[in-house]
Specification:
Elements lengths: L24 H11 L7 E3 L8 E4 L5 E9 L6 H18 L3 E11 L1 H22 L3 E9 L4 E10 L15 E4 L5 H9 L5 H12 L3 H10 L3 E4 L4 H13 L2 E4 L10 H7 L6 H10 L3 E3 L5 H7 L8 E5 L8 E7 L6 E3 L1
Parallel strand pairs: 4-5, 9-13, 10-13
Antiparallel strand pairs: 1-2, 2-3, 3-6, 4-6, 7-11, 7-12, 8-11, 9-12
Helix pairs in contact: 2-3, 4-5, 7-9, 8-10
Amino acid sequence: MISKKSSPKLMTLSHGAGCACKLPAAEIHALLAELGPAEDPRVLVGNETADDAAVYQLDGERAVVTTADFFTPVLDDPYDFGRVAAANALSDVYAMGATPLVALNLVAWPLESLGRDALRDVLRGGADVAREAGVAIVGGHSIDDPEPKYGLAVTGVVDPGRILRNSTALAGHDLFLTKPIGAGVATTALKRGMASRELMTSAVEVMTTLNRSAAEAAHTVGASAVTDVTGFGLLGHLYELTNASGLSARVNATSVPMLPGVLDLVRASEATIAGGTRRNRRWLEQFVSWGAGVDEPHRWLLCDAMTSGGLLMAAPPDSDAPGTRIGTVEPGFPGAIRVE
């Protein structure tokens, strides 16, 4: 729940909120292409498919999964900021079908302006979520920085034969989403002083919910591909999944679950649209075709640069997959998405 005590306005020190401060997807993809893949046969998942974490094989039964994720404040409350950041970092490991084991704190903090107590609350929030996940935080690294940032580097383990990837979707499988979108709109509205307490309570609940059970269900139902939905928005991460799988997708805009009230916020004011969301939409215009009935608020929300979203999975249409069915995977031009 949101802390009732007075807390520093963390977001006033941040140029962006959470995953909305990510570098543009097009720039990241171009840079990774220039660097090329890792030249080690034990690297089972590298940067070639823009997957959620790297996977390194130790032996026939074990592979290490490793990721790092940190960002600027997504909330004003330090404790809840820590909780959200930890859940977001752990999500990358869950999205690979792995079990997180240990983590390191990643901290950039303006001690002079925010003080030690607020940092302690951030770390306490991260530790509480890590404890819920059964993860030990065993150290970390910190720097002095005028803009606060927090996250985790997480290490996990997975059976090499049970890795969930974003590059193995099958045509004919349906798309399922396990959390509502719109957290980016909610946090941007908070930064603008436009968010209700009810909306933020819902948003914090969504962002601090671990994707552990959703990942377990993905294994159970035979999901062919999985990724999590964060800073590149639902359509951005769907593009990465379908492009890596050599397939296209069709999405029903009105089937996509959204946080209550975010659609009305976008309809009322485009000031609730994060800069990261605007970058996402510009990038995605080359891959997405919109049906005439899809209005502007829905288009913005489907590109919402959100933090700690749910898992997006391709699974058999007759399966008991978790979440909401939002579309289908189809043969077609790799990465092409039709929204109706």
